[in-house]
Design a protein that fits this description.
single chain, mainly alpha
Length: 91
Amino acid sequence: MSGTAGPQPDLDEIERWFAAVAEGRVSRDEADRWAARWFLDDWLEWDELSLWALGKLFGIDLPTGPGGEYLHDDEQVREWLGELRRRRRAG
């Protein structure tokens, strides 16, 4: 996964980042930083599903507290990925 800024990502790229987190191929921190770059850019326009998915990725590394587990566990991340895919198919 490339963390570099480039053209605004499409939903395919956002889904690839979600899948990479769910599969353990990228760290939550890396995905959070990537999503933050896009989510916080007020000049970009997003469709509803892309914005929803970016919002989930942005903050995916939040802990429950100092030294705690992740606020959203691996199962929750997989559920979000599944929801993203279902919503894409439903169009």
